[in-house]
């Protein structure tokens, strides 16, 4: 007998790719379980399947930086913070943090399909009673309109969002003067894609003392000390924590100012959640008119 659960949970993480650099992922997780029925006529109670699998994914790779250690230019060493990752291609990046904030995989690149096979094998090693095999499928949300990926860290978060490099793949909806504007959505999704969002308070030195081509952030969070350096051109700087509420407000204010229009932004954080913000263009004084 096979039991299936679609949309069992989501996985949100940052992914290092030797081709694209630091990107964000948000995957739907579907599960199939093979086994024998128990006397209650169930293979495994649905109410138990979800927490059984979700708890193991949440305690594992969810909200970590996924690192293909066999990719060119990758170096991972022990350090005072836990692990230090240095990359060379397609750009130099250094991330330091507790071991639990990294998922190291001895592969040249990490794909959803290969990760699904790996996770299925891991979960099938010690399956629940009556279950012989567990198969997972990881899949992107189908997004027909604009989408982008980003990474960030929320140092005050009590959970795994405090990790300096975790990410998401998100829809972006923008209304200009009350009408959806596909061109603005495409423009901003492209501007934000594969970026790292920084709260300027987390810069390890004042902005004007940072190197011209790189930004460096560092903070102490509940799980430990984190730091990250990457090219400035991959970063966007906010004057607030990079929660989705502040991201939505930052986008709405910026786009309203740039376009001179009334703007509404629906910014998603991964799959099916996020924040909405409205903004008006700055008032024009009489002599500007
Ligand atoms: N109000 C807000 N809450 C949270 C925010 C936020 O911006 N505003 N952000 C986070 C973290 O960024 C975190 O990465 C969100 O993680 P996610 O996995 O999407 O959320 P959950 O773990 O709660 O959802 P599951 O899909 O059930 O794993 C946290 N909170």
UniProtKB/TrEMBL annotation:
Its EC number is 4.1.2.50. It is an enzyme of class 4 (lyase). This is 6-carboxy-5,6,7,8-tetrahydropterin synthase. Pathway: Purine metabolism; 7-cyano-7-deazaguanine biosynthesis. It catalyses: 7,8-dihydroneopterin 3'-triphosphate + H2O = 6-carboxy-5,6,7,8-tetrahydropterin + triphosphate + acetaldehyde + 2 H(+). InterPro entries: 6-PTP_synth/QueD, 6-PTP_synth/QueD_sf. One of its GO terms (molecular function) is 6-carboxytetrahydropterin synthase activity. Belongs to the PTPS family. QueD subfamily. It comes from Chromohalobacter israelensis (strain ATCC BAA-138 / DSM 3043 / CIP 106854 / NCIMB 13768 / 1H11).
